[in-house]
């Protein structure tokens, strides 16, 4: 093979490597299963004015991600999003919420209480047990007193919960 042909092939391989190493990883979040829609549909949960609930006994990074999601949703919708710490909130004062966003790792009290330690069939997180950096989203009816429905983002660990929160923000149109 003449040098000029070899040089051309190497340039093409270098370009292919750049596309694979730079462009594809930045779009991997786009490959997540979509769970956000911008039109009404049966079973959909409106989150544009939903408070974000996290557990104060969870990892600090999960609280920071919840705060970030709150500011992202405020920027997207123009409506200030309420942030509630489930270990401090008095849910008797928030009766009548149509929806909420609940965020946590499976070791947090709020997620453990939702799952009933595996006995509550309305929310199951067994598929997250023993995994790393994995999250699950699920709409749960009557997750807390006074909350009709909630989008629950449960992470197998700290990073899983954070990835779930950032995926929600990204699917809503924000670049986390």
Quick summary:
The protein is an alpha/beta fold and 176 residues long. It contains 4 helices and 5 strands; from the N terminus they run H-E-H-E-E-H-E-E-H.
Helix and strand topology:
Blueprint: H1 3-27, E1 52-54, H2 60-77, E2 83-85, E3 97-105, H3 109-115, E4 135-144, E5 147-155, H4 158-172
Parallel strand pairs: 1-2, 1-3, 3-5
Antiparallel strand pairs: 4-5
Helix pairs in contact: 2-4
**Sheet with most strands:** 5 strands, mixed
- The CATH level-2 architecture of the largest domain is identified as 2-Layer Sandwich
Strand order of the largest sheet: 2-1-3-5-4
The overall strand count is 5
CATH superfamily of the largest domain: Chitobiase/beta-hexosaminidase domain 2-like
Q: Helix and strand succession?
A: HEHEEHEEH
Shape: globular
Radius of gyration: 20 Å
Distance between the termini: 47 Å
Strand content: 15-25%
CATH structural fold name of the largest domain: Chitobiase, domain 2
